[in-house]
## 1
Amino acid sequence: DTGVSQNPRHKITKRGQNVTFRCDPISEHNRLYWYRQTLGQGPEFLTYFQNEAQLEKSRLLSDRFSAERPKGSFSTLEIQRTEQGDSAMYLCASSSPRGQEADTQYFGPGTRLTVL
Amino acid sequence: RKEVEQDPGPFNVPEGATVAFNCTYSNSASQSFFWYRQDCRKEPKLLMSVYSSGNEDGRFTAQLNRASQYISLLIRDSKLSDSATYLCAVNINTGKLIFGQGTTLQVKP
């Protein structure tokens, strides 16, 4: 399978705990994006990387959230001191800046986070 | 005002019907436009990119109207399997996509 992969697919945690999610993009894609989606809404942008550089962060990304892409391949999204309001689907997408499908984003299956 | 707006529906149509969705965007600097399909509790899957000249893929036709700042999606001869949420997304060349709320389509036998 050469698509975007995310792990874990589901995460249940207690309020106050830290969680970390991983995203592996499509191999030739150098851009990687994180979005959050809650029920009945479209995905909301959180942050994106071009190679290892984090180029933009949303105001939604509070200081409890941090994302990394240290080698320009996979990325991790960490949420510290989780709150019930963090419960959502966390989606990762990747794209290439070149070619016929430049900047077309393809999504992974998401990580569904439930904070109790 | 939201940057990208869609009528959430639901649109309930019989099999074989033609249905159209509109999506309006507020930023005139928007560069590229997409329709994604999302099934319940799944990730968005790219349905079509939307080009200035309009484009068609089988039963699906997408159009862009820059003057009025909207994109549309037309589905002809709708199938039961077309039941899903349709998300429009706009890129203003900053990398990120801005999504609408999504429009729910339910095709009935």
Note: Chain B has a mean pLDDT of 94.
## 2
Amino acid sequence: DQQVKQNSPSLSVQEGRISILNCDYTNSMFDYFLWYKKYPAEGPTFLISISSIKDKNEDGRFTVFLNKSAKHLSLHIVPSQPGDSAVYFCAATGTASKLTFGTGTRLQVTL
Amino acid sequence: DSGVTQTPKHLITATGQRVTLRCSPRSGDLSVYWYQQSLDQGLQFLIQYYNGEERAKGNILERFSAQQFPDLHSELNLSSLELGDSALYFCASSVVVGQNTGELFFGEGSRLTVL
């Protein structure tokens, strides 16, 4: 049972444009959501997070939006840069304290 | 550099064998997590230890076991290996103080190939 879903395996965006990565979840007990970025041959690194009491969190070029009623979150990257090319994982956690990850979306930012 | 060290980085072995993966968490982190990433899959949570005690368990097979030692390093033991166990195994650590906010620091992973 995939509780965190990233339905787009890949996304290609031109440099300077907006990248929007989407994530859906099914478990209503999740109350904290995170995005991780992963480059080849490296471990995932934390990017940005959002608590369920908020609907938006910004950190520089990265903004995460949470729509609790739709059980949907998205990561916006503006403007996209070639160095943003990586696999992005959405993750969620609740009181069980373990993170549940999605399958990832590979973002390619083209020149 | 996340501060989490995993060894070995690569391991090739045969079916039926047993391997041990090692993880040293970031200095000061009490929690260690193990995740498995198979081809085209997300990271599947296996198990969490906190200060030497098992804290949470995920989809960990009975053939797999883990422990966290007094110096806080952790080992993941995989036995009776099957072809399907070929995967990237990540260790992560965090400081768990009260409510776990979920931010983990990952090592570079150990790539296991079972032939």
Note: The first strand of chain B starts at residue 5 and ends at 7.
## 3
Amino acid sequence: SQQGEEDPQALSIQEGENATMNCSYKTSINNLQWYRQNSGRGLVHLILIRSNEREKHSGRLRVTLDTSKKSSSLLITASRAADTASYFCATDANDYKLSFGAGTTVTVRA
Amino acid sequence: GAVVSQHPSRVICKSGTSVKIECRSLDFQATTMFWYRQFPKQSLMLMATSNEGSKATYEQGVEKDKFLINHASLTLSTLTVTSAHPEDSSFYICSARSQQGNNSPLHFGNGTRLTVT
């Protein structure tokens, strides 16, 4: 079942700006993952943060996790047109299955 | 990196016919694969967990006789949509983990766009 709720649903920014999106979830998790989906394609894994981690970086991506608030954020710095995609958070509640949020559609304007 | 290949990418079929979708792990073995369904501008909904050599585990509300899953080898899972109807039109995506343990990401196929006319 779908557990994550993402905010905002859609985001439009200028190239070079930062994009921030948030994810909230309901139950205890083992880890939280972020994925990107280009239109009509499968999902690409971006970053995984474990429940005992608070922040993680990967290139221009920065993910935070606050288990007390059951929330996570994904920051994309210095956005590029190629970052235009839908971004999904997914939670792993230690049952080997992932539950996906509703997604945030990001449009980066040149 | 781990690659999951899904075929076909698009299929159009007539109402009442069956459609088979293949999901292959190309460079790793997957004892478990996951099948998701995605409606336009919506999230992924897990349909079932495909287990090599045993029966698939279906999520609540998913008809196992409608969506037949076969996981005959460590690199291939198939989803057959039987007696397809227009409401089955959707984007179907498979995924698998290349590593044991749940602190590892899923690798996704590129999805299959099914249109039932």
Note: The interface with chain A takes residues 4, 6, 32, 34, 36, 41-46, 49, 59-60, 91, 93, 95, 102-111, 113 of chain B (CB under 8 Å).
## 4
Amino acid sequence: EDQVTQSPEALRLQEGESSSLNCSYTVSGLRGLFWYRQDPGKGPEFLFTLYSAGEEKEKERLKATLTKKESFLHITAPKPEDSATYLCAVQARYSGGGADGLTFGKGTHLIIQP
Amino acid sequence: GAVVSQHPSRVICKSGTSVKIECRSLDFQATTMFWYRQFPKKSLMLMATSNEGSKATYEQGVEKDKFLINHASLTLSTLTVTSAHPEDSSFYICSARPWDRGETQYFGPGTRLLVL
């Protein structure tokens, strides 16, 4: 069974204080690992897709990295508007039968204080 | 690009009635769409995979007769909650995967369902 564990569950930072969020995964063959941002009452907003170990992606103050067992979302000099829940999800190798969705972690609730 | 819409954004209905939720990909075609459910302060749980022109594939524990899915075109999938009960109250979110973006799924804004 595919599993995704995110840590910490919640993180409070001061504005400008850099940190990293962790996503550990167990999957029967990784097709892709995804990071999303979710604001309260809204759908997830796509951030990054990573496909293989060693891959890195960057967007503004965010950088995602991937190893064979985990992924990190690094946040550099965050601002209050970066406050949100960050979700990690994996997609396993397609095993047929038509089911093809993502397995999500529980998320990290990030608060950036001014 | 890659915008997904849902309608309605929130709905309140009486127990025993049926509710239809629409999911549209606005600027791309999607042969595959997905339906997820999210309970308060919990993560998203996949309900079903919807393939255009064929029957949906449901996850274990999801009643296919209760949650009817139709994917009649490359830009529209619908989820109908039949004979709704209070325990069906939840946040329903759809996603769609563009054919040219690899495995990335783009999510709609969600539909809040409250069954009284």
Note: The mean pLDDT of chain B is 93.
